[in-house]
């Protein structure tokens, strides 16, 4: 273990690193040429179209206004200026709630709310107690392993432990109180957010999975029939889903070819004396040399032909219609009813759930046969289990080989090498974003080969976890990210936290001893790592590379921007790890708390800045991740209680443990209560709310045509991209239909006819509503492919021909 | 442990006991005087009104037809005659499915389906293997403890264990396959049963809990307003719930007094020379001597006065209206929607769920404030945990004192005493229904005092568990019984099964050794105990006592009958224990299997007879207990796999354990799949089914007045009992309302008006539907207490006065 001076040096290095990053950021961000790297959100929002700069050529790239260099830290107050409601409007509820985990507003909420009083109490009460009793809890002694070894555990007066137990109770109550208040707040915010949202397709839409295949009936027919029968008053229309995964792959490949063509054309324009050539073989290393521009043009042409064929196949082949559909209702109430009820006798058929918002859908997974989902889930959970627990084996092995001190004692001449490696590794780690790596560096010094293997494994871990989540078959990006995040959390919990603490046999010694290790971890990952986040080195480099080689038009430059987004699968688990560290060490080694507080403050600032100026969230889940955050903080509480229990047991203060044993039970009951009280707000949509919004809509905008509004909301984006060429066509189609016969009127007359039938139940089911629905909305949007030329996503646009 | 001859003697005694009971039953049942004890179900069904017998006086009480004595075992084929569909009509689905657990139809299903092939395979494969390898598995040696002690475990060739592992796989697959098929069958039967049920109140009704109290609004007003807003198309009416617990208690007390009065009057009629007297003091032991008839008449009069007051309080006091209501809908679809969706923003308010059928409601618990339920559940689960695990402490203590052999060795002269005690205890146990007691008899012989304490504890255990379930606050009797049953199962699992097996340290020795113990258990509880069930000694005695002292009229005799019902909280757990025993010992000690098979066959016969002729089920839950049965058999499988795993480990066949370790995971996944696939059929009601039934109703009986049908369905039965006197009044009321204005017409015109409004969502919410509902059904049935004399349950009937 590190000595006190080691910690000091490490702190210094990390603070300097963080400061260097901040300085670099401050200088780079005010250069006009980097404007699109550091302020992409404003470009996307339309709030900015070009860097504000003087007229001359140099000023276009380099900031010559030296005054601005003096105020280079002013991004910090700027980041704090925006109010929470503005932030929700600007970046969505997800981002606002994400920041809330770090802190809220004036630095006086959540992360802070929890840890500020705890830090004060712990430092002022526990440190004196620990010092006076001269135990293991006393920080200074603990840092020196050899001293700890000599400490006699039994000489601690057991009465002292009651202070720790009392504080554990106090902290638990405080944290639970804060958690309750914040769950309440967030749930209210979510409901308010949902209530204030304008009309959105997902409010009216339900995703139906496992539509049964009846021979002789198309999926669309079954859907129509089923919902007309069982939701006669509220069913509006549906959008079939096509298996366009192969088509999408072709589109991606074609885009890549187009990029190469653009690159070569740009090259030719700049050096028009020589046409660019390339070899046709593998990676352009061998084969016949051909003219690049002609080659790519030819390739693209061939691709276009294939794509047209594939598109025809998608549209014509009935097999490409998946047994999944997006079913829309006339009211939010109707959708809420359908989403929350069981439809069919066989509970594996006609599975309904709220549709994710269109941009949140992970289209590939809609093609997964529903029956395989159970098996997929089983396999993935076994794999995650194996991954989480077998990662420990190499780690334990490496750890068992030697530790830093052990090695030093054996070979003291290695010390400078080790230290150099440590700091070199730190810097590499931060730059590459391998925050986790540092956790293992004590082991890595001693054996570089296993270290390298670990490094690679750790680097690809988030990718592996994301792939695993995708295999599980979730259909929303937000769900995928939450699932990956959960897996990462389990990994960290077992391998980083419990692995470090439990592998050494005696908990009593290992928890306090590991404090120094975690202090280093917080400094490297939390301080320097976060500072690296704001610098955005990777997007910076990529943007400039793209800018240099591929950007021709303003639109290309637009596409070269990579705003990124909050990486929930990585940040949420590490955030939860900090909560865990703070909660566990609050009673055991309170000196860790200021480091954590520092992390929360700094990360809050940085992420606030990034969310306001950089990130562009792909979807809006309405803070759906909150229940996970909540329950994992509860888990941290229980872990801390159990560890304290173990600690006291090893200290032969076992008679005081029954006192502490009640605490986990109470904490878990509290969690149950919260789950019962607040979680429904994140999973279901109350009918009361749905009805309220429906009525409001009805009074404010009685004439809106919902069918038109919903018509192409749930179209695979790959079709949408080609729609632009035929958009005019589609619009004509819609208008034509609307002129012919308004759906709304028709439905009303239909329904009122039906209601003249004698007695309850009065749902209209007898007189054929078939015609009405067919006239009511353009059937081709829903499912009918009889005239594919009407389609928005008719790929090879042939204007004048496709219109009939 | 018992030796082989001990087992033989025990078997003989138990078989003789069982036979004696059967003989007694055969003789007693054909005596006309016992007709109402052994055939009450037919009296209740109306299929029988008096015993068929000859004319003379003696023949009224004793069967003189000696031919019938010769065919005294013919109840067995009779019990098998009834087909399953007839059985469902006769006794309900619950009973039919309950029998299905034992076996089905021609002895070839479920219990049998599972164990017949397993027994055959196990006996023919395992016994030879065990014999040839000469291991612990070999039955004969195992029975003699001293021989077992000498057995060397390591001399077993590990290859032999692969036979056991293979069979464990085979059995698991077979059981899972049977379970799957039967879950499927039962789910289908349930849905078919629900679909074939005629119109019932609970199909249209939802119970709403935690209706928020808004000051200035009555509960009824809030209810009406909320459901008219949020279920405008389907809401029909609601029935408020009154806190009549105190009133019900008074009624019960009055009934008791009435019984005493009847008894005394009867006594006086028979011995008219002397008026009966009693002392007024405690238990009639001291105090002033008074005339009994006058005393009870006086008491009843006072009670009637108090009850009238209390009734007024219930009706007038707004505080007696609970925040609970039964809300009825115009269609099953509407009720299904409401029951399955979240109503309010605050998920702890407006909690909806399917209403239990009226006779299934446990009215007392409706008065429990909803907020206290969480705490109640917590407290009860802690108590159950304590109960289950602290029961073990005295048992272990008693067990540690001595065991049978130990005692015998020390004091051989005690042997006859011990054996006498054993068989005396057995008989006592069977008669008193203390089946569980026998489990502990080995310990009880050695120390009678702790044994007595245990006996008392065990005797009151089911009562304790039922009280605990009641405290938990479930509102349906069926749920209460299922919960009590679950608790009893946990108790048996931990104390009877695991307690016996795990308390001795080495599993490897204890599982096979305990086989003899469980064989005895099966014989005592399963054979003799079941035979005791058919004899119905307790109801027999009580019926004749009542008949002698209290029965005056035919109606009194009707009430003196105690048909009883299947005691699910006790029989289901013990049934599950037999499954557990069979599954665990199938591989370890297959000789146990024939005993279990025998039990299933015999119990099936007996219960089939009882269900057809005796039991009168209080409620019909539609086999809602099945998911529990299923999951507990799965639990048995997993336990058996884990125990085999432990067994092989102790046998140093550890290298074969990974093979077995996958099995529990697969089994649990199978359970997950089944849960996902079938459980919804037991918890929810699919909209498809609801709609189908609605449409069918609409076409077959379009003119039915649902309001009349539902009006008093969910009235507290305590009010109902007085209704008979005023039934005429109520009927007039209903007819009057129906003549005035049909609800159906009114609602229709209302709805069709609304549908002319322009666009979706089209739920009528604007024009006041208040009036419609008020005219539509007699408001006093729903909530309005303005004219209490209209009430059916107006207690002190004053005909001519109450009609206005």
UniProtKB/TrEMBL annotation, chains A, B:
One of its GO terms (cellular component) is plasma membrane. Residues 376-648 form the CSC1/OSCA1-like 7TM region domain. Residues 738-780 are annotated as: Disordered. Its main location: membrane. The keyword tRNA-binding does not apply. Keywords: Calcium, Ion channel, Ion transport, Membrane, Transmembrane, Transmembrane helix, Transport. GO terms for molecular function: calcium-activated cation channel activity. Residues 7-181 form the CSC1/OSCA1-like N-terminal transmembrane domain. Residues 203-365 form the CSC1/OSCA1-like cytosolic domain. The chain crosses the membrane at residues 12-30, 114-139, 159-180, 378-402, 422-440, 452-468, 488-508, 515-535, 577-607. It is a multi-pass membrane protein. It is found in: Membrane. Belongs to the CSC1 (TC 1.A.17) family. This is CSC1/OSCA1-like 7TM region domain-containing protein. The lineage of its organism: Eukaryota, Viridiplantae, Streptophyta, Embryophyta, Tracheophyta.
């Amino acid at each position: 273990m590190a000595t006190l001076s080691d910690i000091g040096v490490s702190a210094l290095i990390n603070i300097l690193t963080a400061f260097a990053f901040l300085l670099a950021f401050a200088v780079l961000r005010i250069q006009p040429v980097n404007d699109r790297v550091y302020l992409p959100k404003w470009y996307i929002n339309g709030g900015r179209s070009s860097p504000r700069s003087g007229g001359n050529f140099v000023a276009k790239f380099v900031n010559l206004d030296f005054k601005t260099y003096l105020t280079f830290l002013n991004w910090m107050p700027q980041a704090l200026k925006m109010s929470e409601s503005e932030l929700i409007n600007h970046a969505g509820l997800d981002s606002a709630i994400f920041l809330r985990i770090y802190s809220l507003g004036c630095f006086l909420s959540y992360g802070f709310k929890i840890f500020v009083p705890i830090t004060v109490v712990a430092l002022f009460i526990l440190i004196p107690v620990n010092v006076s009793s001269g135990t293991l809890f006393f920080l200074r002694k603990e840092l020196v392993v050899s001293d700890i070894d000599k400490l006699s555990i039994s000489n601690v007066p057991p009465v002292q432990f009651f202070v720790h137990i009392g504080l554990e109770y106090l902290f638990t109550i405080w944290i639970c109180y804060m958690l309750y208040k914040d769950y309440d707040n967030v749930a209210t915010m979510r409901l308010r957010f949902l209530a204030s949202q304008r009309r959105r397709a997902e409010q009216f839409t339900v995703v139906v999975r496992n539509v049964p295949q009846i021979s002789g009936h198309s999926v669309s027919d079954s859907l129509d029939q089923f919902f007309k029968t069982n939701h006669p008053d509220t069913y509006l229309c549906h959008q079939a889903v096509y298996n366009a995964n192969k088509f999408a792959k072709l589109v991606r490949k074609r885009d890549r070819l187009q990029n190469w063509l653009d690159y070569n054309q740009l090259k030719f324009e700049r050096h028009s004396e020589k046409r660019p050539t390339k070899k046709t073989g593998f990676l352009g290393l061998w084969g016949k040399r051909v003219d690049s521009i002609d080659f790519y043009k030819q390739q693209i042409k061939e691709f276009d032909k294939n794509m047209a064929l594939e598109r025809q196949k998608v549209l014509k082949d009935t097999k490409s219609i998946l047994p999944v559909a997006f079913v829309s209702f006339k009211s939010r109430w109707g959708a809420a009813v359908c989403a929350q009820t069981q439809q069919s006798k066989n509970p594996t058929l006609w599975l309904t759930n709220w549709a994710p918002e269109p941009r949140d859908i992970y289209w590939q997974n809609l093609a997964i046969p529903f029956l395989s989902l159970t098996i997929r889930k089983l396999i993935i959970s076994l794999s995650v289990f194996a991954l989480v627990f077998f990662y420990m084996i190499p780690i334990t092995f490496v750890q068992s080989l030697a530790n830093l001190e052990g090695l030093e004692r054996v070979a003291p001449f290695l010390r400078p090498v080790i230290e150099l490696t440590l700091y070199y590794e730190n810097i590499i780690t931060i730059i590459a974003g391998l925050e986790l790596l540092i956790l293992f560096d004590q082991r890595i010094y001693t054996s570089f080969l296993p270290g390298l293997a670990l490094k690679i494994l750790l680097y690809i871990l988030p990718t592996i976890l994301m792939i695993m989540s995708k295999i599980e078959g979730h259909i929303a990006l937000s769900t995928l990210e939450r699932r990956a995040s959960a897996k990462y959390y389990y990994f960290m919990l077992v391998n980083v936290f419990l692995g470090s603490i439990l592998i050494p046999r005696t908990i009593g010694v290992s928890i306090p001893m590991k404090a120094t290790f975690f202090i280093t971890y917080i400094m490297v990952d939390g301080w320097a790592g976060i500072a690296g986040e704001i610098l955005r080195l990777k997007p910076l480099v990529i943007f400039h590379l793209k800018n240099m080689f591929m950007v021709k038009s303003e639109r290309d430059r637009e596409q070269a921007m990579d705003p990124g987004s909050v990486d929930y699968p990585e940040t949420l688990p590490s955030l939860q790890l900090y909560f865990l560290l703070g909660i566990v060490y609050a009673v055991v080694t309170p000196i860790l708390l200021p480091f954590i507080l520092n992390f929360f403050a700094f990360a809050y600032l940085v992420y606030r800045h990034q969310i306001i100026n950089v990130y562009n969230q792909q979807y809006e889940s309405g803070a759906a991740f909150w229940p996970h955050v909540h329950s994992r903080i509860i888990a941290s509480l229980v872990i801390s209680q159990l560890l304290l229990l173990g600690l006291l047991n090893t200290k032969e203060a076992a008679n005081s443990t029954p006192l502490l044993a009640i605490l986990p039970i109470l904490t878990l009951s509290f969690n149950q209560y919260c789950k019962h009280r607040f979680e429904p707000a994140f999973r279901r949509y109350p009918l009361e709310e749905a009805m309220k919004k429906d009525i409001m809509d009805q009074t404010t905008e009685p004439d809106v045509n919902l069918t038109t509004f919903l018509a192409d909301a749930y179209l695979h984006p790959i079709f949408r991209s080609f729609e632009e060429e035929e958009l005019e066509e589609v619009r004509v189609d819609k208008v034509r239909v609307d002129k012919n016969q308004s759906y709304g009127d028709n439905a009303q007359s239909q329904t009122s006819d039906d209601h003249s039938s004698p007695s309850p139940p009065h749902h209209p089911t007898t007189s054929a509503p078939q015609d009405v629905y067919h006239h009511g909305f353009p059937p081709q949007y829903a499912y009918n492919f009889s005239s594919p030329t009407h389609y928005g996503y008719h790929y090879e646009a042939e204007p004048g021909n496709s219109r009939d």
